[in-house]
Design goal:
With 350 residues, the chain is α+β, with helices and mostly antiparallel strands. The chain has two domains: 2-94, no CATH class; 114-347, BirA Bifunctional Protein, domain 2 (2-Layer Sandwich). Helices cover 39% and strands 19% of the residues. It contains twelve helices and ten strands. The strands form two sheets. It has a seven-stranded mixed beta sheet with strand order 1-5-6-10-9-8-7, with helices on both faces. Strand 7 (255-262) and strand 8 form a beta hairpin. Helix 1 packs antiparallel against helix 2 and helix 1 (2-18) runs parallel beside helix 4 (53-80). The radius of gyration is 41 Å and the shape is rod-shaped. Bound molecules: 3,4-dihydroxyphenylalanine (DAH). The site of 3,4-dihydroxyphenylalanine has 13 residues, from strand 8, strand 9 and strand 10.
Length: 350
């Protein structure tokens, strides 16, 4: 009878260990441990044993009963813990024990965006030359963005096809709200809120309805500069921009002025920096050796009058510069769109 018991224990344990559902488990339990099960059967025949054998076989049967009950519970627990949905199975797969012998993965370290870093550097250089930072809103009035800057109502840059209007639009609508097309309106805000002398830069985002290509984007960064004092000349302007260019791009860098027109400066210039190729001509500068940075000039007396500065007493220069352009020469980037596509393969290089 002991043999029969031992065989039963082995068989039942193996069946329980293989059960894959609770129903399976319950069937196995009924088969071996149930009231009409095999163990009960053996117990019933205990009476036919001699009184000496009865206790040992009885206690063995009890031990087996307990062992099987335990195995049943353990397997039930296991079955309940099995992932059921596809998602749970997927998760279970993923959290396989870690193989600590595999080489480690480098954590990704975040950093400033290449444009933000460029902007910070530009601000730092002007800061060193005594300029403080002024700011204005991205949404400004047509008055600040155009009228106060001596830009007439019929000027092409005011066209609805060139400028993003937010509210109102019309040649005479000075209250119209728009996304500023340049940082020059910050000049107006600063001069209207403080007495001269003024020495500020204004970094900020600008918006234009340009067709996007390698050198144009609908939104871009500019840094505006404004210096107003008694004896300011265009030589000061050239001096400051030259010092800036050399500090930023190296002492070999030259700067060149080309005559231009802006409604808010007289005279006006566009200015270029030597390209990173050193002026020899390359893909970035399209063989010219120069990169156009933006415009500058002496503040037009009309602008001074508009903000309440006496043009007979005060002189000033102003400039704007395109931050993307500067970053492009600095890093040899040939397409402005790279800055805005958020492709890590590009961003991680800087
Ligand atoms: N606002 C001009 C532009 O976006 C650039 C500019 C030209 C700024 C002359 C100035 C300036 O301050 O004096 O094209």
């Amino acid at each position: 009878m002991l043999d029969r018991l031992n065989r039963l224990e082995k068989e039942a344990l193996s069946a329980l260990g293989k059960a894959s559902s609770q129903a399976d488990l319950d069937n196995i339990r009924a088969k071996y441990l149930g009231r009409k099960g095999e163990l009960a059967d053996i117990m019933k025949s205990l009476g036919s044993l001699s009184p000496e054998k009865r206790p040992s076989v009885g206690s063995e049967a009890n031990r087996i009963k307990q062992t099987l009950e335990k195995a049943y519970k353990k397997r039930l627990e296991y079955i309940k813990n099995q992932p059921k949905t596809a998602e749970q199975k997927e998760t279970r797969k993923r959290i396989k024990p870690t193989d600590i012998t595999l080489p480690g993965r480098k954590p990704f370290v975040g950093r400033r965006h290449v444009l933000r870093a460029m902007l910070d550097e530009i601000v730092e250089i002007f800061h060193g030359m005594g300029f403080s930072v002024a700011q204005g809103p991205d949404v400004d009035t047509a008055y600040n963005n155009f009228d106060a800057l001596n830009t007439p109502p019929n000027h092409p840059s005011r066209d609805i096809g060139d400028t993003f209007y937010i509210a109102g639009f019309g040649p005479d609508d000075t209250d119209a709200l728009l996304l500023r097309t340049h940082t020059s309106p910050v000049q107006i805000r600063v001069m209207k809120s403080q007495e001269p002398p003024v020495r500020i830069i204004a970094p900020g985002r600008c918006y234009r309805k340009d067709t996007i290509d390698a050198t144009h984007y609908i939104s871009f960064w500019q840094v505006e500069g404004l210096y107003v004092d008694h004896d300011v000349t265009i030589a000061d302007l050239k001096g400051v921009l030259t010092a800036f260019a050399k500090e930023l791009l190296g002492s070999e860098t030259e700067i060149r002025f080309r005559p231009h027109f802006f409604p808010f400066t007289e005279p006006s210039v566009e200015y270029d920096f030597t390209c990173i190729c050193g002026g020899k001509g390359c893909r970035i500068c399209k063989g010219t050796g120069w990169i156009e940075i933006s415009g500058a000039g002496m503040v037009d007396p009309e602008v001074f009058r508009e903000v309440g500065y006496d043009p007979d007493i005060w002189r000033g220069y102003a400039f704007g510069m395109g931050v993307e352009r500067i970053a492009m020469i600095r890093h040899g980037i040939d397409d402005i769109r790279h800055f805005y596509t958020n492709d890590l393969r590009f961003l991680e290089q800087f």
